[in-house]
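tl;dr need the bound structure. longer version: we got a ligand (adenosine-5'-triphosphate) that a collaborator sent over and nobodys looked at where it sits. i said id run it. heres the input, straight from their email, havent touched it
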Amino acid sequence: MRPFVSFKNVSHEYGADKDKSVKALSDVNFDIAKHEFVAVVGPSGCGKSTLLRLLSGLLIPTSGGVEIFGHRITEPRDEIGIVFQKPTLLPWLNIRENVVFPSRHKRGRVSRQEYERAEELIKSVGLKDFAECMPEELSGGMQQRVGIARALLMDPEILIMDEPFSALDALTREEMGFELLQIWNERPKTVLFITHSISEAVLLSDRVLIMSPRPGTLVEEINVELPRPRSSQTIRHPKFNEYTDQIRQHIYHREEAKIA
Ligand SMILES: Nc1ncnc2c1ncn2[C@@H]1O[C@H](COP(=O)(O)OP(=O)(O)OP(=O)(O)O)[C@@H](O)[C@H]1O
């Protein structure tokens, strides 16, 4: 099957044209199938966010290339929605206007269909009664839900998520993970999800990519064959701990081998 997203021999060096450069990624190769949910884990500074910036087209690799359906990415594209660690909502706009903001920003206007779509998305992230509220009136979890609705406004094929739930408390985080899976189930997307949490990666994804310390490269891929739909019961599945242990070993063994 033809891959939907392909990282081909991707290396990236920040400041490559200056005296002081940082090699963030080295020869990264992987494919993602359409509608696959892929999580990326790895030590801090290994280049996870750099991977996302490259897929979003905000950054072009110093060598190799990132392709969507065989087309090399050379600039930001509409078929990609991004959810950041902090939702960065515009404080002077209400929730509805924040959700339609990508369209206003891009075209200078918002169509009736887009307002209808925004209403639908606001409802599907559980904020039906909050469309008129200002961001400051919402909790952190609710604000992140707005960030997810905003990323889905243009109905992107690809959803890029950079530690989207890391600023939330443990309970809200777990709840948001399952809500995300429900949205993904209703509106299938190809997802690249960065997290520091091994259990979150296993709980949500079809496949976990494990990266080495900087310069980051792919050291292992784990196919997570846990039944869907996933729920809080999934954590009790006998294979759940097997997967998390396997990932931990890949991350920490390398660290230990380096120290020894
Ligand atoms: N704009 C930049 N200029 C120079 N170096 C950068 C820049 N952005 C990131 N880096 C460096 O590149 C490396 C990879 O950064 P990146 O943010 O991709 O890692 P990460 O795995 O997402 O980190 P974390 O898990 O801590 O968020 C780090 O050493 C970082 O300091």
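gonna send this back to them w/ a short note. The chain has a mean pLDDT of 92.
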